[in-house]
Amino acid sequence: MHPPPSFPFAVLQYAFLALIAYVLAGAPLLAGWMGAGTEDAQHRVGAAGAQVDGLVVPDANLTCDAHAFRGVHVLSREPLVVYIEGFLSDEEATAVVELSTPLFQPSTIWAAGEERLDTAVRQSSKAPVPRAHAVQCIEARARAFQGWRPFVFVEKLWAQRYGPGGHYTYHYDWASASATHGRVSSFMVWLGGECTGGGTHFPRLRRPAGDEWCRFVDCGDEREGVVFKPARGNAVFWENLRADGSGYAESWHAGLPVLSGEKIGLNIWSWFQDGYVP
């Protein structure tokens, strides 16, 4: 019989096994350390709900024209990933671009609590979208798509513009998470896709079988996972967090480099703040 390991050696064994489990779980804290957080300075939300100025509160008197999607396709159920044809009309996409264009500025990243420029990680321009009537209707549509979940609020919308070489390396949309608060879901909406390259890559999602998906997914791309092709007015919706507050490793994604032309996108993020009443 071998003698039991000494105390320091046993501790090292357990620490090593814990590190392996953490990496296999997606290393969520490491993602934030690597500059993967997408929260811009103007709409950061405090974990305790103290800074709620980044959330939009629906207007009780808001009225919007009826809007019908051209198609809704479920790519994954765990996590939930849905492709939406015609999330925006052409008129809405044009309106958001026109509202955003004067406000574009170089995109930044957040790392270790500091905002900075780093084009190796993120090369694009961003713009806060003014809350015109059309924009408020888009916010309301995003909430309705998710079933008006209690204590879930849409964050102020941001447009993103990518020229040749523009990209955003792999990251999670959630920088931190818990059962009481966090960025529970994301929409990536394309306002303009007159470009080559520039797909949105989810390397940990399983590529769907069947040629039907090739209208939306780059079936010729040899990368692992799924690459969604930019298509004006269309959107991808995905859940970032489970009900217990843990993050989905499959939500790891990147904006691939634009080879030519210009890609313009709209981020719609939803924040869960348990018990918060505006």
From TrEMBL:
One of its GO terms (cellular component) is endoplasmic reticulum. Its cofactor is L-ascorbate. SMART domains: P4Hc. It comes from the Eukaryota. InterPro entries: P4HA-like, Pro_4_hyd_alph, Pro_4_hyd_alph_FE2OG_OXY. The keyword Transmembrane helix applies. One of its GO terms (molecular function) is iron ion binding. Keywords: Dioxygenase, Iron, Membrane, Metal-binding, Oxidoreductase, Transmembrane, Transmembrane helix. The chain crosses the membrane at residues 12-34. Pfam families: 2OG-FeII_Oxy_3. Residues 79-271 form the Prolyl 4-hydroxylase alpha subunit domain. The keyword Membrane applies. This is Prolyl 4-hydroxylase alpha subunit domain-containing protein. It comes from Didymella exigua CBS 183.55.
